[in-house]
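ENCODED BACKBONE
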Amino acid sequence: GATGSPVEGGLVMLAFGLGTVPALLGAGLVLGRFRLPRWSERLAALAVLGMGALLIWRGIGGMGGHPGHAGH
């Protein structure tokens, strides 16, 4: 793997997650000031679920080959 061990990989993922908190919190606070239609919330939720499903599918080899070379 890229990090060498599961523990190191977990620490990298934790650091990435903690690093995204300020940007996501800021975006949430800014967007929370706007009145958005109800359908936009559902569309955003569907987009997040769709991307999650796609990444899981690619991760388990759904596009052939291994994830690093999917589609080649």
